[in-house]
Amino acid sequence: MANVKVFNMSGSEVGTIDLSDDIFAVEVNTHVMHQAVVQYLANQRQGTQSALTRAEVRGGGRKPWRQKDTGRARQGSIRSPQWTGGGVVFAPKPRDYSFKLNKKVKRLALKSALSSKVNDNKLIVVDDITVNAKTKEMAKVMDSLKVNKALLVLEAGNDNAVLAARNLPTVKTASVGTINVYDILKYDSLVVTKEAVKKIEEVYA
């Protein structure tokens, strides 16, 4: 069973906590983590890009010059793709880029990401984060924990901490239900409260 230190907001060690091997000590599977990241990024795409094909561009109904005897290449329309102002070949159209992953694959990817943070000593457990909704207070906590680019996982209802962290460009907050593989891997450190650790073990067991 993995055992990590627990810190307070001042950065002092106040104890240890045992982490569930089923979640924080699984064999890291980079393939499923890659799949989860690709799915996350694909699902973020709006898919609203659009361009006009030669059938949709205005104009070009008349043949620009006769077929033969001009010395120039034959042309059927001034709105063909090779003309300036012509249509686009295989023009992009609005589409849905999202796709689904099996629930077991998504869960394994999340466990692998969490386990990788434990293996790299990048998982920091804090006994509690109680601050006013002030950015400088959260910045002081991050400095005390000696983290810069961090994903902060909080228990439900800790609204002041969310407000205090939202103006820190290198800190992102998440609840237990919204954590994802992309964010866990993107940020250098994973800062989790003790209450959130318990909730993660309950939800993803």
Compact description:
With 205 residues, this protein is of the alpha/beta class.
Q: Care to describe what's here?
A:
By secondary structure, the protein is α/β, with parallel strands linked by helices. The protein has two domains: 151 residues, Ribosomal protein L4/L1 (Ribosomal Protein L4, Chain: A, 3-Layer(aba) Sandwich), CATH 3.40.1370.10; 49 residues, no CATH class. The protein is built from seven helices and six strands. It has a six-stranded mixed beta sheet with strand order 2-1-3-6-4-5, sandwiched between helices. β1 and β2 form a beta hairpin. α2 packs across α3 and α4 packs across α5.
Helix and strand topology:
Layout: E1 2-7, E2 13-19, H1 21-24, H2 30-44, H3 103-119, E3 123-126, H4 135-144, E4 150-154, H5 159-165, E5 171-175, H6 181-186, E6 189-193, H7 194-203
Parallel strand pairs: 1-3, 3-6, 4-5, 4-6
Antiparallel strand pairs: 1-2
Q: Mean pLDDT across all residues, rounded?
A: 93
Rounded radius of gyration (Å): 27 Å
Q: Which percent bin holds the helix content? A: 25-40%
Main β-sheet: number of strands, strand sense, barrel status? 6 strands, mixed
* Order of neighbouring strands in the sheet with most strands: 2-1-3-6-4-5
What structural category do the secondary elements indicate? alpha/beta
SSE string, helices as H and strands as E: EEHHHEHEHEHEH
Beta fraction: 15-25%
* The CATH C-level class name of the largest domain: Alpha Beta
Shape: elongated
* Count of helical regions: 7
